[in-house]
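Thread: Modeling a multi-component assembly for a lab meeting

Hi all, long-time lurker, first post. My supervisor asked me to bring a structural picture of a complex we are working on to next week's group meeting, and I have zero experience with this. I have the sequence lines for every component (239 residues in total). Could someone generate the structure of the whole assembly? Inputs are pasted exactly as I received them:
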Amino acid sequence: MVNNPAPASMLYLKIGKISIPVHPVATHFPNALLPTAALFFFCYIAAKIAGLGIADNLEIASFYCLIVAVLSVPVAYWAGYYDWQVKYRGAKAPIFITKARYGIIMIVLGVVSVAQHILVPQTTVLTSPWLWLYAAMMLGQVGIAGLLGHLGGKLVYLH
Amino acid sequence: MKQRLKQLQEKYEILSIVIPKEEDLYRLYSGLNGRVQSETAKKLTAHLAAEKLSHKKMLEDFLEEVKAEMDDINKQLGKG
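Re: Modeling a multi-component assembly
Sure thing. I ran the full set together rather than chain by chain. Output:
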């Protein structure tokens, strides 16, 4: 058998005999939870306008989804950075640079939107511009998650 | 010259992505080589693993050429 000169491929979390690749797992949290958070938030707006009692529950569900997504993004970013440095040897190709830049924007948007929700009570008031700023930041994160997922798919499936 | 640099950057990106794929396949065939029982399957997986390593070497050489040309152009453009 020929010896393999290649370095370790990517970051894994080892639990017993199971090796879990960190980046692909971590990225699925924001990719799933951010659209869910946005969906619940727009359902909250619709329910609030319609005067439905479920509205506040939708808003709370949206915020909890957002918190878990925002917490998972730095983990995904760190694991992705590790994989870039090890598996792809830190190649300064546009696809990696784009992913790194938009990842930082996503972290900032996530932290700012959660902080706004905690610190600005008007965030959930329909007539307040804070609500639309919060919604815009959430949609921005959904868009970036989609872009980063698309670029990640290009790396994995070479399409 | 900028057009050539763009072409080289595209090549650099493709090679940066494809080389680790060859490594992944090398690991796959090496792993299988250690697990299969039949002599034929052992020979086949060893052959495929060696092929992957040779592809990797070829692509790495190509990558070095692309990087060298990119560096030259960047120097001429005053970026390097």
